[in-house]
Amino acid sequence: MDLPNWASDDVDIEHASPARVYDYYLGGSHNFTVDRQMARQAIGLWPELPLIMQANRAFLRRSVRYLVAQGITQFLDIGSGIPTEGSVHQVAQVASPECRVVYVDIDPVAVAHSRDILTGNDRADAIQADMRDVAGVFDDPRTRRLLDLSQPIGLLMIAMLHFVTDESDPANFVAEYRKMLAPGSYISLSHATHEGRPDQAGSHTELYRRAGAPLTMRSRAEVAELLTGFDLVPPGIVFLPLWRPDSPADVDDHPERFTGFAAVGRYE
Ligand code: SAM
Prior knowledge:
Elements: H1 18-25, H2 33-45, H3 49-69, E1 74-78, H4 88-95, E2 100-105, H5 108-117, E3 124-128, H6 134-139, H7 141-146, E4 154-158, H8 170-179, E5 185-192, H9 198-210, H10 220-226, E6 231-232, E7 238-239, E8 260-267
Parallel strand pairs: 1-2, 1-4, 2-3, 4-5
Antiparallel strand pairs: 5-8, 6-8, 7-8
Helix pairs in contact: 1-2, 2-9, 3-4
Bound molecules: S-adenosylmethionine.
């Protein structure tokens, strides 16, 4: 298959990628046959998945607006994915034009597309890195150019830590990032959980495991452990639509069906 012009030669089109599968869930066009097959299979098993992903994006936007309102003007978005309408720099720079954003993703398509849409925006850039290479993320010249680590930042880990397995010890990596933050910084995090729909969790994680992209859903207690060292902003760790909704009408009777936890924490 010929690669489209936005895809670099190192893109693996033989195996589904979480970034591209997620792009498909959200109605994007930066995905390949293998990704669409997996996404359609997942949606077949769990038809609400696209709605859940939209609820996750809506939380991302609300939390970025919240952080800007707290005075945060620089963001490090880890596992940023393939940008869609309402990405961090768009939301943040509308709220406050001086905001600076560094996007980090392991997926080359996510990074290539991010750089493409950021052309001409000298306050935002993207780097390709595994989040477990903490020094690599902070030492990257693009990070150093845009972020002043002596000042508070907004660290975003939205719908990405469930791709870090227990063997990799995600809590340890979050702690490594926390050590790099100036007091007054924040973390915004969302994370897949089996607690909302335990009936769906098994087949979904099995699908990702078979695709070679293991996904670890975690309990509320495990998500709380990831946030060790941060003071949780009210309402704490809640299902996605319940985190400071713009309007009560945005929350239906069963927020647990969105099967993701959302939280924002402050580092003192
Ligand atoms: N944060 C975006 C959002 O919520 O809309 C995208 C979430 S997407 C479900 C998860 C992203 O995490 C994917 O783009 C994937 O490539 C990225 N990812 C997974 N493991 C990663 C790692 N170890 N380091 C950096 N990025 C990673």
